[in-house]
Structures are given as structure tokens and as C-alpha cells.
Amino acid sequence: MRPRTLTALAAVGLAVAAPAALTQATPRGEFNSGGILQLGTGSTTCGAKPGGQCVAIKAPHADLHGMKLRGANFDRADLRNADFSYADLRGARFRGAKLRRADFSGANLKGANFGPPRRSGKSANQAQPAPSCSPSCSGANLAGANFSFADLSSATLTGADLESADLTSANLAGANLSGAGLVSTNFTFATLASANLTNATLTSANLTYATLSNTNLTGSALNSTNLTSAILSSANLTGAYLNNTNTANTQWFNTTCPNGTVTNTGC
Fold first, then answer.
1. Element (H, E) at 18
2. Within 10 A of 60 (CB to CB), how many other CB atoms are there?
3. pTM reported for the whole predicted model
4. How far is 38 from 40, CA to CA, in rounded Å?
């Protein structure tokens, strides 16, 4: 066979093989012909991309490390043990999602929504009951998740289950954690300034060196909570429970105590 013919056949072979390479599975997962990571199985799949619609997909252990997923919708998705570390998740939605032991370390979650799942139909316009944490919260299941150093400023975590989650040095300024389950959660060095923790359960949580300036803790359970060296300036603790709470070196200034009195020395 002539050399020119061999060259032509080789070129055809490469042209045929190239598209197939785009759809092959990689250690991260399966990519479509456009180079977008596909999540889910069967007929329920979605593209992991900014604004992607990944409602109710099942992708436990998904590797989304460092990906750009701003505004993506993961409502009711099963993403247990998924890796979202250092991902851009600004404005993403995780309402009612299963995220147990997911890794969000270093992720940008500004404005993300981890609240209760949105209802549809006639009941959507009716008054909804407050989230219940007995036995589990109606928001996202984030128990044991890693949010260390993550930016969760202004995020909605209403009624979320964050039991034993790691929020070391996380930014939760202005976040809504009302009714959230925060039992044994680690908030060491976390920023919770102006956050809403109304009726949250913080039993045995670690808030050592946490910043809680202007934080609303009305009706919250802080039993056996560690507040060592925490900053509680202008925080509101009206109706909160402080049984066996460790307040060594806690900074009080214009703080409202559970009985409604204002103090600069301690409740």
C-alpha cells in the first residue's frame, strides 16, 4: 500500500476516534461531547455547569472539586459524600438535598440556599410549618459535612441538619440558620456576625473564638456549648438556654441575656 494511502487512513482513524474520547469516562466521571461533566444515572442526568438544572439527580461521591457551578440547582439531589471543595457555588440551591459528609471546604457558597424543599401545587401558596429538628431537620442533610474556610455569607440554611459538621473558620456572616440542627458542630474561629440562629439547636457545639456580633440567638439551645473567647457583642440571647455553657473569656458588650437584660459582663 502506498505511503500516501496509509497517511490518509490514519487521518480518518483519528477523526473517528476523537469524538469518542470526549464521551469516555474519566476518574472524575463521564463527560458529554461538549466537555461538560454529566451527573446522575439513566434518564435523570444533568450537566455540571453554571446554572445547571440538577434537580433530584443521584450522584453520591461525585467529584466536583474546583468546578464553576454558580446558580446551579441541586434541589432534592442525592450528593452524599460528594466533593465540592473550592467550587464556585454562589447562589446555588440545595433545598432538601442529601449532602451527608459532603466536602465543601474552601468553596464559595455566598447566597447559596440549603433550606427546606420547595413545595409545588396548591400547598405552595399556603403557610408552611416551621422546620422540625425532631428527629431530623426538613432542610438539607449536611451532617458531618466539611465547610472549613468556606464562604457561606448570606446563605440560607433554614432547618438544615449540620450535626457534627466542620465549619472551622467558615464565613457565615448574615447567614440564615434559624431552626437548624447544630448539635456538636464545630464553629471554631467561624464568623457568624449578623447571622440568624433563632431557635437553632447548638447543644455541645464548639464556638471557641467565634464571632457572634449582632447575631440573633433568640430561643436557641446552647446547652453544654463551648463559647470560650467567643465575641457576643450586641448579640440577642432572649429566651436562649445556657445550661452548662462554657463562657470562659467570652466577650460581652451590649449583649441581651435570656431574661431580656442587657449586659457587658456576662449572662
1. helix 3-22
2. 15
3. 0.76
4. 7
Residue ranges with strand state E in 169-263: 255-256, 262-263
d(CA 196, CA 235): 10
Q: CB of 193 within 8 A of CB of 212?
A: yes
**Which backbone phi and psi does 98 adopt, to 5 degrees?**
-100, 110
Instruction: Give the contacts of 103 (CB within 8 A, at least 6 positions apart).
Output: 82, 83, 84, 85, 145, 146
Determine the straight-line distance between the first and last CA of the chain, rounded to whole angstroms.
93
| pLDDT tens-digit readout, 216-246 | 999 999 999 999 999 999 999 999 999 999 9
| 164 neighbors 183 (Cβ within 8 angstroms) | yes
